[in-house]
Automatic annotation (TrEMBL), chain B:
Keywords: 4Fe-4S, Iron, Iron-sulfur, Metal-binding. GO terms for molecular function: 4 iron, 4 sulfur cluster binding; metal ion binding. This is Oxidoreductase, iron-sulfur cluster-binding subunit. Gene3D superfamilies: 3.30.70.20. Pfam families: Fer4_2. CDD domains: PsrB (cd10551). The keyword S-adenosyl-L-methionine does not apply. The keyword Iron applies. Residues 4-34 form the 4Fe-4S ferredoxin-type domain.
Length: 708, 241
């Protein structure tokens, strides 16, 4: 950490190891610091899985640190929801929050958080235990579905990671794994090795999904399908493997068990010819996929993003990931590596704290009815992220007390009475357990790379201060102390990459290397013993005759689901397929554009059973006819000068459909129609700044066939 | 003396834009606002281009990162009336900001569109200025700017080697884009050092027939080499692909 004032005087670079935020992967970073100011973020070359690499989101962490609209100082709202706040002393703010908790009691309060790093999770666990407060964690619902599918299929609570670097074939169902999803840097690095890491052996990648995403564009073949039919395609692949004798019984059994099927039903009900019409593929294409899986071993199958956001999302993920059982790819080199539990039990957020849309709706109902009167919110923005039908806004308006720990005035924080801003990630202590890990136990240490830039306090420090004010025992006095104490528990395990003769040496080595990992600590997992889910076809809100198109939202590679819309570098980074920036648009196919007489830049009205919005058109030649694609990310009504008032939040357009088993938000399950307005809008995009056509004689991007 | 060059493997590139943002962070490139895009004046020393090929459903989107090609016979150099654009002994095409008078002749003569003119004074909110890299000049209104292979990193590494009385080690230094690139599609190094990663990569790719340079027929001898993307259906395309 930065504690040496000489760093400020010498005019020399200093490099500090730290960790990425948990929702960006939590992997190890190094930060260049010059004269007390963070200048550049890169991946930690020592940290497993990422090999010193990073992505645009990690690069932009310095903009979070030095953001012009970051909150400094504790503050109190002049009136709830006005967006106007008065700065107050930290001690008063802490006393007020403690008084609130004392008055209402923990059982009538809820702590809503985003994803927590490991030491924050430990502090929150201690805070819960002492106060009895309920914890609710908000993360994109697709990951709730993914966690459920993985737990039921493989018996582990952590996310798995495909061993792409050693695979020869990747079959991906809709997951945007190179540009977002669960571990973009580790997976992108492995993808590079998959393609060109071994001379004479190039991995093959087939993508099955409704949209040619930035990830899908890299595939050797793209198989466009009807949205939500990923699971049916997977079942038909399993049927081909089974009936052609390419699936040994002991490998087929876990798959059939997970889906509550027997071999006879699989053979009769899910033959490619029967399934094909519901998927948009031909029976021959399904057979081609099945044959590719057995011809190119080792092979691995992954699925996610929109596949998980359908009304049959859990079935889609179980049926697709389950193919790894048939292929014998689970926990094998080049297959799907399961990850172990964190090395210390305290470092984990309990599964029951991560809520689905159904859980959120119930929670907000309890708040509206007064059962829960006090809401504490930390780095979560439910008012923006959840559909309005969840009742988030009304609940927060009705709550007696709302306290936010956000460093920015986002939509949820605007409704708070008190704001106790958190420090930036680069100013904090913490332990981070990447989820997914690299296939074995790994912990990154997060340490302050600069002295605090503004008057903010780490969330963990505030919780521990509150415990003190409430007269409760503090397990640690600060987030720093918690981090170090937990780190020393790692030492007491007596294994791992950091060895030391005493505690101080252990901590210094840990900080210098950026983390601790133990390649011997791996997960074994277990095959399912009961049905994880029943096969199910996707359903869509809206009648097809009124709403002829499927509205297909997708998270932006740069802005995700909108949580990074406050960072200008990421706003200005073109979306890889459309090259659009700074706004929301809809993507229509060339066929639809021709049919309706639309051109790029035409302003249209998008109508769904849920809502209406006016948006500019981008004619995307790779869009399937029948689908209207729309990116998440914009539509903020607050959240700094760079995000506020731009575009539309697709969560306001999609119906609050849910996946029945998990109760998660099925945001890819709404139909829409579009109406011309006769007006045009300026679409900010990179395309067209330089000539965007391939020269016929001398193509810009040259390709060649693989060597035989 | 090194001869710096870059190899970009299009079969590894995934179009993520990490190189673009890493370059912005390293080289104090101004924020590309919405207005800037509307005016078609976004500055990106390395940019990510996307090309379409074919028609739905047999359509492909292809990515290519494009930095300055660092031409050996750079067409941007002879047209500068004030010698603001010149060539270093190490093969880098440089821009002297305080010599530039903004004629923009160099930009007109660059076929790769990798030179950018500052039509306005670059602006950052005060707090964001804390991030600016002290090793890199913030360019003012009226001058050209462009990729220079992170020359400040090269100079710093060379000075360090000199202080330690040794020569620069193989692959001791790299550019910000290559450092960030998660798939290792971008590799930077000394083309004259047979042990460097770029030289080895080029030697291997030459054998596979994968090496080409952008607009190579113009004869400017660029020092950015591309490795062709592998495409299963390439044989069905035109022979030049």
């Amino acid at each position: 950490p930065v504690f040496n004032t000489n760093d400020w005087v010498y005019g020399r670079d200093a490099w500090f190891a730290t960790a990425a935020p948990p929702d960006q992967g939590g992997y190890g970073l190094i930060v260049r610091v010059f004269e007390g100011r963070a200048k550049k973020v890169d991946g930690n070359p020592d940290f497993p899985g990422i090999h010193g690499k990073s992505d645009a989101r990690a690069q932009a962490l310095v903009q979070e640190l030095y953001h012009p609209d970051r909150l400094s100082g504790a503050r109190r709202a002049t009136s709830r929801g006005s967006g106007q706040f008065q700065t107050i002393p930290w001690d008063s703010a802490l006393q007020e929050v403690a008084q609130i908790l004392r008055e209402v009691g923990g059982e009538h309060a809820v702590l809503i958080t985003g994803r927590l790093n490991a030491s924050q999770a430990a502090i929150v666990a201690a805070f819960r235990k002492a106060t009895g407060i309920r914890q609710a964690v908000l993360e994109p619902d697709e990951f709730v579905v993914l966690r459920t599918a993985i737990r039921r299929l493989f018996g582990v609570s952590t996310l798995p990671i495909p061993d792409l670097a050693n695979a020869r074939f990747l079959l991906n169902f809709s997951a945007d794994f190179l540009h977002g999803w669960i571990a973009p840097v580790a997976l992108a690095h492995a993808y590079g090795e998959f393609r060109q890491g071994k001379p004479g052996q190039r991995g093959l990648y087939y993508h099955v999904g409704p949209r040619l995403s930035g990830t899908a564009a890299n595939a050797d073949r793209w198989f466009p399908i009807i949205p939500g039919s990923e699971g049916l395609v997977a079942l038909a692949i399993a049927q081909v493997l089974s009936t052609e004798g390419k699936a040994p019984q002991d490998r087929l059994d876990p798959y059939l068990t997970a889906l509550g099927l027997d071999a006879t039903r699989l053979a009769s009900d899910y033959a490619p010819e029967r399934v094909a019409p519901a998927t948009g593929l031909s029976a021959e294409q399904i057979r081609e996929l099945a044959h590719a899986l057995v011809e190119h071993q080792p092979a691995v199958v992954i699925a996610g993003t929109s596949a998980a956001a359908a009304t049959n999302g859990l079935f889609n993920l179980v049926a697709t990931f389950g193919l790894n059982w048939i292929l014998g790819s689970v926990n094998q080199p080049g297959g799907l590596l399961l990850n172990p539990e964190p090395p210390l039990p305290d470092l984990r957020v309990p599964d029951d704290a991560i809520l689905s849309l159904r859980g959120w709706t119930e929670l907000f109902e309890q708040i509206r009815s007064g059962t829960i009167s006090t809401v504490l919110v930390y780095r979560a923005n439910p008012v923006y992220a959840l559909p309005s039908a969840s009742g988030a806004r009304e609940a927060l308006q009705a709550a007696k007390h709302v306290v936010s720990f956000s460093p920015f005035l986002d939509e949820t924080t605007t409704l708070a009475d008190l704001v106790l801003p958190d420090q930036a990630w680069l100013e904090q202590w913490g332990l981070s357990v990447p989820d997914p890990g690299p296939g074995f136990a790994a912990v990154a240490i997060q340490q302050p790379v600069v002295a605090p830039f503004l008057d903010a306090r780490a969330f963990g420090d505030v919780l521990l201060d509150l415990l003190r004010l409430l007269g409760q025992d503090q397990p640690w006095s600060t987030q720093e102390q918690a981090t170090k104490a937990l780190a020393l528990q790692l030492r007491s395990l007596g294994r791992g990459s950091v060895t030391a003769t005493n505690d101080k040496e252990f901590l210094v080595t840990l900080q210098a290397r950026g983390g601790w990992w133990d390649e011997q600590s791996r997960a074994t997992g277990s095959a399912p013993s009961t049905a994880a889910v029943q096969p199910r076809e996707p359903a869509f809100a809206g009648e097809q005759n009124q709403f002829p198109y499927v509205l297909h939202p997708y998270p932006l590679p740069s802005l995700g689901y909108g949580e990074l819309a406050h960072l200008p570098w990421l706003q200005g980074l073109p979306e890889p397929i459309s090259t659009n920036v700074w706004q929301t648009w809809i993507e229509v196919s060339q066929a639809t554009a021709d049919e309706l007489g639309l051109q790029t830049g035409d302003l249209v009205r998008v109508l769904t059973p849920q809502g209406v919005a006016e948006l500019p058109v981008y004619v995307n030649p790779a869009t399937q006819p029948g689908i209207i694609a729309i990116p998440f990310g914009q539509g903020h009504t607050a959240y700094t000068r760079y995000a506020e008032g731009r575009g539309v939040n697709p969560a306001t357009l999609v119906a609050p459909e849910t996946e029945p088993d998990t109760g998660t938000f099925a945001w890819a399950a709404t139909r829409c129609r579009i109406e011309k307005t006769g007006r045009r809008a300026r679409l900010a995009r990179f395309e067209g700044m330089v000539p965007a056509f391939q020269l016929e004689e001398f193509p810009i991007v040259r390709v060649m066939a693989p060597k035989a | 003396m090194p001869r710096w060059g870059m190899v970009i493997d299009l079969d590894r590139c995934i179009g993520c834009g990490a190189c673009v943002v890493a370059c912005q962070a390293e080289n104090n490139v101004p924020i590309n606002t919405e207005d800037v895009y509307h005016q078609r004046r976004a500055i990106a020393w390395i940019r990510l281009e996307r090309y379409w090929e074919g028609e739905y459903p047999n359509i492909k989107a292809r990515y290519i990162p494009v930095p300055c090609m660092q031409c050996t016979n750079a067409p941007c150099e002879p047209v500068c009336p004030v010698y603001a654009t010149y060539h270093t002994n190490e093969g880098i095409n440089m821009q002297v900001y305080n010599r530039c008078i903004g004629t923009r002749y160099c930009a007109v003569n660059c076929h790769w569109h990798v030179r950018f003119f500052n039509f306005w004074e670059p602006k950052w909110p005060d707090s964001l200025k804390n991030q600016l890299n002290p090793d890199v000049t913030v360019r003012s209104r009226g001058v050209m700017e462009k990729c220079n292979f992170c020359v400040h990193r090269l100079v710093k590494a060379e000075q360090k080697a000199k202080t330690e009385k040794r020569s620069l080690r193989t692959d001791e230094v790299t550019t910000a884009c290559a450092q960030a690139c998660p798939t290792s599609a971008i590799v930077f190094g000394d083309l004259d050092d047979p042990n460097s990663a770029v030289s080895k990569l080029l030697a291997q790719a030459e054998q596979e027939g994968r090496v080409y340079r952008l607009l190579e027929d113009l004869g400017t001898d660029p020092k950015v080499y591309y490795l062709k993307k592998i495409d299963l259906e390439a044989a069905e395309h035109a022979a030049t692909h």
